[in-house]
């Protein structure tokens, strides 16, 4: 009895201690994590292309084949099939005819291929192409024989810029085609049943288990799944307890849908409480942003089709993922990449690195969940970093703190010694003024692989041709224009104040002595200048487009981040005359500043895999990556050689042969803001020189007035903007509060 | 004196019993000891450790560099000065006014219970409402400025001017007087009536009764109220923060602003050094208060 009592007391004590530390919970979570970690999906890749053809649309068949289209150099289409597991695609014997474009491939319940075809007068876009016939053709996947052919020219032929993105067929034989914002429902007889607009771009279209056609769209309120209702000729909201977000959505195998969101493949029924996670594509070296289709095969393997429009050769790939025990997979050292937000480019870089490295694999550690606010995510990451549990690599753009804060914590490794090593990247190969963006107190903590330049653009006739201008110059320009003219697009009192403070930090804060002076005339001038701008952005009350306003003289300047020569050319077109990228006005000198783009990595000083981290940095700065930055949106490359090559490419004209056999220059790209489109041709030497000059004179935005300091300035400035306090009173208050902030940070 | 003799066998039994009782006590105390260790002692040791290393990543020992940096930091000095100034003014006021009110309500005045309720009301108001009330009153476009405007006076930015600390002292007193007053009333009622009556019969004057009898009997309550007010004066940061944010007008910048802001900017070594310096000052202050209390209150407490 006494022994029992003792045991009881000990038992109670143990339980109390266990509860104190929450042991029960930890054990459960660990078990689940271990179970999930035991297996891994290993991908086998296969090029999805036929020799001499560029791959276009693609789909999985009902059988174990993949069907895809190829376009040859003459622009003629061919259908191919590839059996999963085999390497050579087969031509499908389908008579397509000349000038026919296969735009969409679908599959019906019987496994027939449904083709959305458009016949043009010519397939050469540069020569212009007019629709002659629109056809929906059902064919046998075995021999290509035509099962049904519907001429839908009457229903769809008149639609401007028709492009069939997807094609589906329902139980009643109606065809669903989507084009940009619309879904067109075609009767089995070929007539239009209805044309329903989603009001926004349709990202996905699929059928659930019951055969309902569902679209995925991104609306103002967020991502939505909507049912295409023929009866009501409308898009009906679908109720679900699952919070869906932007991703790739398609029909499930045994469930309503199979979808990819934030690099994770899920399956679920719409009535489920939560989806089932299948895998993370990144773990299998697959870039989820390039996914076109995926399927769970009968044997449990998962197949995916990818097409990377941003790669230089527009690579199409079939991947077959097999679940394997982790022990069977060759072991690699794991590097962790910590970020609050995973960008498109970073995801691509990590997947590409993992795919080519035999020694390392990067795992992404994205802090916080979708439901959590920014502050919570930041505190999660900060807690990890300060507790020495931080990732090997820290995202310097989407991290939890500023460069100065990381450095004060001793968290970042100086990468200068790595740059000095022989055989690797050396500093001389990189643009010096861009590198300086991540320099702090003489040490280098990161290198951005690419960058943009934030600047102000104006006509030479307005801003002159000098590389810099002052606030006085800008005030003079404002005074010379009609009162209703907008000086800088989308600018408010606060945004101008922020820019002016950011561009003139040395005027107000002396970092060496730890003092500030906001009571001088310079700052008062900035306050008065900012006060000339509207309080809120006036959302285009007269309905004029930006380009119309510029051309009519109602909008004088634009500010933008220039990431390519082509963008420069677009702005030149918008202004309609010679432009100067003069930058933000400053008190002393010009202000165009560097904006980091791409995967900008900081090396954790505490990492046990510093060599691995450096290998990744070298990878993203490698010649191949630098010379093939995904499209122009990726920014200017940081290596001098790659930048020069990019400029050469920008100046190199491309030609096509006209119908009369003459060589004509082909546009390199089409740029626009929604209100207009402009074809961009080879850049002139002068244009490239202007861009070079802009890059050379740009400065880093690091080390300038911090967020907290500006928050104080903005808060106090509101009283002046509202007319409640004088500029002197506000300046005094800012001086008082900012000085406290500066004292604290020393 | 004859020594009490306990038989050896009985003595052994008593010793064993005592040991057993001790073991059981330790067993029952262990969760609490563990809790104190985990939540107070170990974190404090970690804070001491952080205060002598360069940062939480490198862990290089830097002796007293962090203390020196903090001591010469302008913001820390400003915060220490403001906190001290606030405590020096607000704590005596909170004690003296509360004692005065308690004495007043202890005498036979009309509406005693209504007054008592009136002074206790601020304790029941949630902090968010208190801040809201103070904002409505002392905002640049608030009621107080409207009222003084009626007399032709210009607007005053109460919370962003040299008046700011006065506003906060008023808020502090408004919030704490009631609680202190109740403690004093309870202490006053426990003073032995016979001593007071004897004093009156001996023709003692009211101030003599107060100084030589009541104050002596109130000494332990005085100490408690002073310590509580001192602690509350440090906690006034909460109201200031909600009224004016992380970086207020310099006279409102308190020690906890410094602590909170350095924590938010992940500067743990600076935070730890400041926390240790502050705790040393607190220990000294409270030690002085205990010594004072034991000096004045020794004859009534024995």
Structural summary, described in words:
- The complex is a heterodimer of chains A (746) and B (302).
- Chain A is of the alpha+beta class.
- Among the domains of chain A are: 336-447 and 599-634, 3-Layer(aba) Sandwich (D-Maltodextrin-Binding Protein, domain 2); 451-595 and 668-745, 3-Layer(aba) Sandwich (D-Maltodextrin-Binding Protein, domain 2).
- Chain A is built from 21 helices and 43 strands.
- In chain A, the strands form 12 sheets. In chain A, strands 31, 32, 35, 36, 37 and 39 form a 6-stranded mixed β-sheet that branches. A 5-stranded mixed β-sheet of chain A has the order 26-25-27-38-30, with helices on one face.
- With 302 residues, chain B is mainly α.
- Chain B contains 12 helices and no strands.
- Chain B is flat.
- Chain B has 2 domains: 1-51; 69-301, MetI-like fold (Orthogonal Bundle), CATH 1.10.3720.10.
- Chain B has helices at residues 8-51, 65-71, 74-106, 112-124, 127-138, 143-150, 164-189, 193-201, 206-234, 237-244, 255-264, 268-301.
- Classes of the chains: A alpha+beta (746), B mainly alpha (302).
- Chains A and B meet through helix 1, helix 5, helix 20 and helix 21 of A and helix 1, helix 3 and helix 11 of B.
CATH topology of the domain at 451-595 and 668-745 in chain A: D-Maltodextrin-Binding Protein, domain 2
Total of DSSP H or I helical runs spanning 4+ residues of chain B: 12
CATH class of the domain at 451-595 and 668-745 in chain A: Alpha Beta
Report the end-to-end length of chain B measured between terminal Cα atoms. 29 Å
User: Mean of the pLDDT scores of chain B?
Assistant: 88
Put simply, the count of helices of chain A is 21
Number of distinct beta strands of chain A: 43
From the N-terminal CA to the C-terminal CA of chain A, the straight-line distance is 66 Å
Q: Given the C-alpha coordinates, what overall shape of chain B results?
A: flat
- As for the number of domains of chain B, it is 2
Share of residues in helices of chain A: 25-40%
CA radius of gyration of chain A is: 30 Å
For the largest interface in this structure, which chains are involved and how many residues does each contribute?
A: A-B, 38 and 36 residues
> From the coordinates shown, what is the CATH architecture of the largest domain in chain B?
Orthogonal Bundle
What is the quaternary state of this protein? heterodimer
């Amino acid at each position: 009895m006494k022994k029992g009592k003792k045991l009881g007391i000990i038992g109670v004590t143990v339980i109390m201690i266990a509860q104190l530390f929450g042991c029960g919970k930890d054990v459960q979570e660990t078990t689940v994590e271990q179970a999930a970690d035991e297996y891994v999906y290993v991908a086998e890749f296969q090029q999805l292309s036929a020799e001499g053809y560029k791959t276009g649309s693609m789909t999985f068949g009902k059988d174990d084949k993949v069907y895809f289209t190829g376009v040859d150099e003459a622009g003629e289409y061919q259908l191919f099939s590839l059996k999963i597991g085999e390497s050579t695609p087969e031509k499908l014997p389908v008579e397509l005819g000349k000038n026919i474009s296969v735009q969409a491939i679908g599959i019906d319940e019987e496994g027939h291929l449904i083709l959305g075809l458009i016949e043009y007068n010519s397939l050469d876009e540069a020569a212009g192409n007019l629709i002659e016939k629109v056809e929906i053709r059902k064919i046998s996947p075995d021999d290509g024989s035509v099962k049904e052919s519907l001429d839908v020219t009457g229903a769809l032929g008149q639609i401007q810029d028709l492009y069939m993105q997807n094609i589906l067929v329902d139980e009643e034989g109606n065809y669903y085609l989507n084009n940009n914002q619309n879904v067109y429902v075609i009767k089995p007889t070929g007539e239009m049943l209805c044309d329903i607009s989603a009001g926004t771009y349709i990202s996905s279209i699929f059928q659930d288990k019951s055969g309902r056609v569902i679209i995925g769209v991104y609306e103002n309120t967020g991502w939505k799944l909507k049912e295409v209702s023929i009866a009501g000729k409308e898009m009906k909201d679908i109720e679900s307890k699952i919070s869906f977000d932007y991703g790739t959505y398609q029909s499930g195998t045994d469930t309503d849908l199979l979808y990819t969101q934030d690099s994770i493949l899920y399956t679920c029924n719409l009535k489920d409480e939560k989806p089932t996670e299948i895998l993370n594509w990144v773990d299998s070296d697959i870039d989820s942003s390039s996914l076109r289709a995926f399927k769970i095969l009968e044997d449990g393997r998962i197949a995916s089709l990818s097409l990377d429009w941003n790669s230089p050769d527009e690579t199409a790939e079939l991947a077959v993922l097999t679940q394997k025990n982790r022990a069977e997979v060759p072991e690699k050292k794991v590097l962790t990449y910590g970020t609050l937000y995973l960008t498109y480019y970073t995801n691509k870089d990590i997947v590409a690195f993992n795919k080519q490295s035999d020694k390392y694999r990067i795992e992404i550690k994205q802090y916080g969940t979708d439901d959590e606010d920014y502050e919570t995510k930041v505190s999660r990451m900060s807690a990890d970093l300060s507790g020495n549990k931080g990732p090997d690599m820290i995202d310097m753009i989407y991290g939890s703190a500023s460069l100065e804060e990381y450095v004060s914590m001793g968290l970042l490794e100086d990468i200068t010694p790595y740059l000095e090593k022989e055989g690797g990247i050396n500093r001389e190969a990189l643009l010096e003024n861009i590198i300086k963006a991540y320099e702090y107190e003489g040490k280098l903590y990161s290198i951005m692989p690419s960058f943009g330049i934030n600047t102000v653009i104006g006509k030479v006739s307005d801003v002159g041709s000098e590389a810099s201008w002052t606030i006085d110059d800008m005030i003079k320009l404002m005074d010379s224009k009609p009162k209703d003219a907008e000086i800088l697009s989308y600018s408010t009192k606060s945004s101008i104040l922020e820019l002016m403070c950011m561009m003139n930090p040395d005027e107000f804060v002396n970092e060496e002595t730890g003092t500030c002076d906001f009571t001088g005339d310079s700052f008062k001038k900035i306050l008065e200048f900012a006060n000339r701008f509207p309080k809120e952005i006036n959302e285009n009350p007269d309905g004029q487009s930006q380009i119309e306003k510029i051309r009519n003289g109602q909008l004088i300047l634009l500010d933008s981040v220039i990431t390519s020569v082509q963008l420069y050319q677009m702005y030149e077109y918008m202004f309609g005359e010679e432009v100067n990228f003069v930058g933000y006005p400053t008190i002393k000198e010009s202000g165009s500043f560097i904006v980091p783009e791409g995967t900008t990595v900081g090396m954790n000083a505490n990492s046990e895999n510093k060599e691995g981290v450096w290998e990744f940095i070298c990878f993203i700065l490698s010649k191949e990556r630098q010379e093939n930055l995904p499209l122009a949106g990726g920014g200017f490359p940081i290596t001098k050689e790659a930048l020069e090559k990019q400029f050469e490419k920008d100046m190199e004209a491309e030609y096509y042969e006209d119908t009369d056999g003459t060589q004509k220059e082909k546009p390199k790209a089409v740029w626009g803001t929604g209100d207009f489109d402009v074809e961009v041709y080879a850049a002139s030497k002068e244009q490239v020189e202007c861009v070079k000059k802009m890059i050379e004179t740009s400065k880093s935005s690091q080390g300038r007035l911090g967020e907290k300091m500006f928050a104080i300035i903005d808060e106090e400035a509101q009283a002046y903007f509202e007319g409640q306090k004088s500029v002197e009173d506000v300046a005094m208050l800012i001086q008082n509060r900012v000085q406290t902030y500066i004292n604290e940070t020393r | 004196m004859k020594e009490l003799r306990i038989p050896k066998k009985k003595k052994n039994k008593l010793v064993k019993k005592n040991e057993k009782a001790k073991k059981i006590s330790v067993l029952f105390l262990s969760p609490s000891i563990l809790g104190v260790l985990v939540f107070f002692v170990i974190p404090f040791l970690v804070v001491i450790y952080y205060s002598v290393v360069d940062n939480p990543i490198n862990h290089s020992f830097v002796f007293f560099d962090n203390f020196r940096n903090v001591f010469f930091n302008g913001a820390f000095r400003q915060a220490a000065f403001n906190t001290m100034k606030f405590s020096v003014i607000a704590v005596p006021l909170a004690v003296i006014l509360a004692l005065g009110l308690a004495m007043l309500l202890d005498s036979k005045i009309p509406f005693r219970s209504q007054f008592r309720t009136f002074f206790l009301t601020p304790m029941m108001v949630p902090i968010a409402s208190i801040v809201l009330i103070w904002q409505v009153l002392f905002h640049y476009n608030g009621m107080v400025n409207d009222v003084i405007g009626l007399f032709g006076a210009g607007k005053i930015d109460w919370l962003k001017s040299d008046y700011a600390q006065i506003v906060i002292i008023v808020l502090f007193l408004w919030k704490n007087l009631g609680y202190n007053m109740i403690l004093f009333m309870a202490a006053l009622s426990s003073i032995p009536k016979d001593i007071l009556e004897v004093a009156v019969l001996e023709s003692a004057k009211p101030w003599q009764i107060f100084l030589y009898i009541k104050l002596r009997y109130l000494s332990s309550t005085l100490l408690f109220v002073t310590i509580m007010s001192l602690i509350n004066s440090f906690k006034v940061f909460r109201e200031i923060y909600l009224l004016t944010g992380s970086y207020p007008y310099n006279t409102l910048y308190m020690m906890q602003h410094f602590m909170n802001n350095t924590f938010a900017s992940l500067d743990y070594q600076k935070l730890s050094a400041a926390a240790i310096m502050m705790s040393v000052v607190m220990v000294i202050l409270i030690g002085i208060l205990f010594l004072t209390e034991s000096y004045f209150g020794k004859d009534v407490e024995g």
